[in-house]
Amino acid sequence: DICSLIPNEEADVCILEEPEHLNWYRAPGDGWTKKFNYVIGIVHTNYKEYASAHYSGLWTAPAISVMSSAMIRAYCHKVIKLSDVLQTFAPEKENTSNVHGVRSEFLREGERRAIETISTRNDTITLPDRNSISGTNQTNEPPTSTYFIGKILWAKGLDKLLELESFYRQCTGDYFPIDIYGNGPELKEITRAYHGRKSGTRLQNRTRKMGRSQRKRYRRYREQKIHITTTSQDGPITTMVSDVCDIEISTNQDASRQLVIEEVEEDESDDAEEDDQYDDSSDSSDSSDDDESNEFDESAFSDEEEVEQKSTKRRRLQQLKQTLKSKTQSLEFDLPKSRYEWRRTPIPAKFPGRVDHSLLKGEYKVFINPSVTEVLCTTTAEALAMGKFVIVPVHPSNTFFLKFPNCLAYRNKLEFAANLKWALRNEPEPLTPELAREFTWEAATERFVAASAITRREAREREELGMSKVDERIAWFHRELGKGTRGDTIRKVLGGGPISNQVGWQNAREAEEQLNFDGEDQDDEDEDDHDREDADDEGLSGKFRRSTLVAAIRSTFANGAVPISGTWMDKS
User: Fold this and answer.
1) C-alpha dist (Å) from residue 546 to 182, 306, 540, 559, 562
2) pTM for this one?
3) 311-to-288, 301, 529 alpha-carbon distances in Å
4) Could you tell me if 364 and 406 are in contact, meaning their C-beta atoms sit under 8 angstroms apart?
5) How many other CB atoms are there within 10 angstroms of residue 167's CB atom?
6) How far is CA 438 from CA 149, 396, 447, in A?
7) SS (H, E, C) 37-82
8) In this structure, what are the phi and psi dihedrals at residue 425, rounded to the nearest 5 degrees?
9) Secondary structure (3-state) at 254
């Protein structure tokens, strides 16, 4: 119980991050509202939405919703939601505010971009053309100016991004290139959905059509990690790679490249050696056994023959395994993971992998985030702080960002295409110091203080509603459910995992402490008795102390006999 470890003189105000999560399986004892004078909860995770995405969400999502609402009512005086995407927990206690900031690296990049943009505008000589008439500083569209960063999951809006790519192509005739940064369990599936199934498996299908020796040489070539580049498209270029195979890279009129692996003259001899290596080894071993059989007796020969048979079986089994593997490799089925893999035209999307967002500075100017499952997307705030365009859907999770001039929100696909086309041809507006300060942690702290305050009117309304008594009853009921073995059973049924045995662990710990305490007391008594014996027997040898005479004298004293005037007499 964390509350029991905090001194009472230090328990004034407590801020709980994810209060519903912290109290689902809390330890038995007094709650946070009993320990602290004021408790504020900050909710920024949509557990109900996560549960709905699971196959058991039909019953787990409503249960988590009710449980989370009860925990916040029982253990918080005030709750702050980062956006209105979250459910309603306690209407009289709730307030919605973005109390998060970004790192200073993003703000410094925004200042650099602002200075660079202002200086460029001042140095530009305006001419009476369409650019000056429109009042915008239009530039040529770079090859890749758009990007996305986040966990590579379909739930992050990457399926919606595919639909936006298709609509943009209908409007302009081409897909827009984009770099998708991040990593995740669905990376391979999403990569194939963007690039198409044929483009991702073309080279693999070619290698499956090769012969056995060709595939082995190609694998050997791949293991050597030799990179081949072409510098001309006038005709085929042929190079030798480690004397293993000839690689011919040819280009046709469509500028498509084809990789053809030709056998060298030594392939037939290599195949013959590969097919007969085990037969030769077995024949040589048999002949050697015949030559040496006269030098050993019959028992030694039988043992050696048994070992040789085992090794021969092992080699043949290994040969059979390799043969089956080579024969079944071409029969592997790579089933599609999504319907998007059947596209004929690949989307010009790259997946560079995971990277820190602060490192993506000058090369990109448009951040696209079509996700509607976030509570408040941190990467969107970071991109705006760096002075970039941000294209997001109109959604409660993006309400905080709509006041910034570089935030281009869309309600449908047509607005998205128009916003992207405009962003690619224009430069972002430099952030003013007032808008840049909105992303600092100082401003986030000010918003937090304002959102966590309770006015006298709110306090009076709470008292009239009598909800404080209801909250206390919820806390009492939750505390009673968590006590004893009954609490352990309930936590185990609800999936508590390792914490399901809280009471049992506590009882075992107390028993162990009591046992150690009793053992220390017994050790102290034995040590005192031993010290007294050593003091009484001081000057006597160990052999004499362990003798029968000394044992009889000790038993006599224990029975009450005392010496009087040089003779032994009983006290009675």
Assistant:
1) 79, 65, 10, 19, 22
2) 0.63
3) 15, 15, 70
4) no
5) 15
6) 22, 18, 10
7) CEEEEEECCCHHHHHHHCCCHHHHHHHHHHHHHHHHHHHCCEEEEC
8) -100, 0
9) coil
pLDDT at 2 over 60: yes
State residue 213 phi and psi, 5-degree precision: -65, -35
What 3-state class would DSSP assign to 214? Answer: helix
Q: Which residues pair with 149 in a beta bridge?
A: 181
If residue 13 lies in a helix (H) or strand (E), which one and from where to where? strand 13-17
Residue for token pair 């990179």: 227
Residue 147 and residue 180 in contact, taking contact as beta carbons nearer than 8 Å: yes
- Spell out where 226-371 has E strands: 237-241, 245-251, 257-262, 349-353, 366-368
Q: How many whole angstroms separate alpha carbon 509 and alpha carbon 503? A: 10
Q: What is the mean pLDDT of residues 424-431?
A: 92
Report the side by side order of strands in the sheet with 257-262.
Answer: 237-241, 245-251, 257-262
The CA-atom distances, in angstroms, between 475 and each of 31, 79, 392, 479 are 7, 16, 40, 6
Count of residues making up the chain: 572
Q: What is the pLDDT of residues 127-170, one digit of tens each?
A: 444 443 334 444 444 457 899 999 999 889 999 999 999 999 99
Helix (H, G, I), strand (E, B) or coil at 147: strand
